[in-house]
Design goal:
2 copies of one chain form a homodimer. By secondary structure, chain A is mainly α. The relative contact order of chain A is 0.10. Chain A contains 9 helices and no strands. Chain A has helices at about 10-30, 35-40, 45-50, 55-85, 90-110, 115-125, 130-155, 160-180, 200-215. Chain A binds a DNA duplex through helix 3.
DNA sequence: CTATCATTCAAACGTTCGTTTGAAATCGAG
DNA sequence: CTCGATTTCAAACGAACGTTTGAATGATAG
C-alpha cells in the first residue's frame, strides 16, 4: 500500500475526472475528445469506457462529483441558519448568501480544480444538449425547492410568480458570473482574475441580488434607493 | 423574375441561415452537422461551403445578420433619448430599457426566427469556442462603450469599477433570461412560454436590474426597499 | 442560338470521432 | 508461489465529420 500509493499519484478515475473537468471547460463537451482527454490524463484510450462506461457517463460523473456535495452544503447552511433563527424568519440576504456561498467558495479553490468546475458549471446551464440540461435540473431540484420555500417565508407579501421570476434572474446573474471568469469581456475596464476575491464578490453579488429581489413591484412607485 | 421568385421560395443563402440559426440553437455549433443542416434546408451539402466558405464563416454570418442591426437599434434608441433629454441626464431605467428593448422585441418575433436567435445568442456568451466569444465581443464592443458612458453620466456618484461589475451582473441576467426560454427549468413553478410577453418581461427585467444597479454600496446601510 | 457566368449536384476526399476487442500486465487473497 | 479478478494496453471497428472536386444544370447577355 505504501508503494501502491506512489505509482499512479492519483487513481486513474480521479485523474480522468480532473482532466475531463478542465478540457470540458476549455473546449466544451463535444469539443473535448476522448483522445485529447486520455492523452492528457496519461491513461489508455479505453480507460474512460472501462471505468465510466461511456463519454456521456463521464460527463455525468464530472458533475456529480462536485455538485452533490455543493448542494448538500447549501442545504446544510440553510438549515443551520433556520435552526439559529429558531422560528424567526430569515432575511433575504442571509438566504442569498447561503445559496451563493458554496459557489463562491468553489471559485477560490484554485488548486483542487474547483474554480475550473465553477466555470464549467456556469456554462452548463445554457448547454444545448438536452441530456446535460436535464441532469443539471435533476441535481438542483431539491435544493431549489427548499430555497424557494425559504424565500416565501422571508417575503410572504411577494407574489409567488414574481418570486419565481426573481429567483430566475438571480440564478442567471450567478450563472453568468461563474461562467464569465474567463469568457467574453464585453465591458471594457472589467478587472482580470485578481478581482475574483470570493469575499468581495459575495458582497457585490449579495448587494445586487437582494436589491433586485426586493425591488418595488411594477405597480408601486418609489424607485430610487441610494446614489 | 416572376417565375424566378416562386421557385426557391427564399434564396439559398437565406434558407441556410434560417436553418442554421435553428439547428445551432438546438444542438450547438459543433452538434449541428453540415449534413443535418443542408438536408433540413433542402440544399446540397456543398452549398454552405460555396456560399459562405466554411462552417465557421456560416456561424459568423448567422450572428452578423441579426446582431449588427440589433446593436444599431440600441444605439439609435439611446441617441434618441439623449436628444430628447437635451443635455439633462437620463434615468438609469431609461438606459436599461434602451438596452434590453432590442433583445426583448426579438423574443416576440416568433415568425421571423428572432426568438430562435435570442436563445442562441443567450447561449453564445458562454460558448467554449474562443473564436465565437471573440466574435460576440467584437460585435458588442461599440454599443457597450456607449452604454457605459451613458450610465456614468446618469450615476456620477457610483464608482467606475462598481458600475462595471453591476453592468456585468445586468448583462448576465439578460443573457440567462434570453437563453433559458427553453432551458433548464430549475425552479418549479416557472411559467411556460405563454409568460414570455415582451412587455411584461421588460417591466420585470427593468425593475430587477435597476434595483440591482442602484443597490446601496457595501459600506452603506439601508437595505429594505419595499415589501 | 450561343457563349458565359453562377449555381447545384453526386461522389469522394482524408480525418477524427466514440467504442469495442482480446491479449498482456498487474493485483490481492489463499 | 499460484490463481482468479481487475486493470491496462495496442489495435482496429464502423460511422460521421467538414471539405473538395469536376461535371451537370440553370440563367443571362450578345
Amino acid at each position: 500500500m505504501s508503494v501502491r500509493a506512489l505509482k499512479p499519484l492519483k487513481e486513474t478515475q480521479t485523474r480522468i475526472l480532473d482532466v475531463a473537468e478542465e478540457l470540458f471547460m476549455q473546449h466544451g463537451f463535444e469539443g473535448a475528445s476522448m483522445r485529447m482527454l486520455t492523452a492528457k490524463a496519461g491513461v489508455n484510450l479505453a480507460a474512460v469506457n472501462y471505468h465510466f462506461g461511456s463519454k456521456d457517463a463521464l460527463v455525468e460523473a464530472v458533475f456529480r462529483r462536485r455538485l452533490d456535495p455543493m448542494n448538500a452544503e447549501r442545504l446544510a447552511e440553510l438549515e443551520r441558519l433556520e435552526q439559529e433563527a429558531a422560528g424567526k424568519a430569515l432575511t433575504p440576504q442571509a438566504i442569498i448568501r447561503a445559496f451563493i456561498g458554496a459557489s463562491l467558495r468553489m471559485i477560490e479553490d484554485t488548486r483542487g480544480g474547483g474554480r475550473t468546475f465553477s466555470r464549467l458549471l456556469g456554462r452548463a446551464y445554457t448547454e444545448p444538449a438536452k441530456s446535460i440540461r436535464q441532469l443539471i435540473g435533476r441535481m438542483y431540484a431539491p435544493a431549489m425547492e427548499r430555497f424557494k420555500a425559504a424565500f416565501v417565508r422571508a417575503l410572504p407579501e411577494l407574489p409567488k410568480d414574481e418570486l419565481v421570476w426573481r429567483m430566475h434572474f438571480m440564478f442567471g446573474t450567478l450563472a453568468y458570473t461563474l461562467a464569465a471568469t474567463d469568457t467574453v469581456q464585453l465591458i471594457a475596464g472589467a478587472k482580470p482574475e485578481d478581482r475574483y476575491d470570493a469575499r468581495v464578490l459575495e458582497d457585490r453579488l449579495t448587494a445586487f441580488m437582494s436589491a433586485g429581489l426586493l425591488a418595488p413591484l411594477p405597480g408601486a412607485q418609489q424607485v430610487r434607493i441610494a446614489a
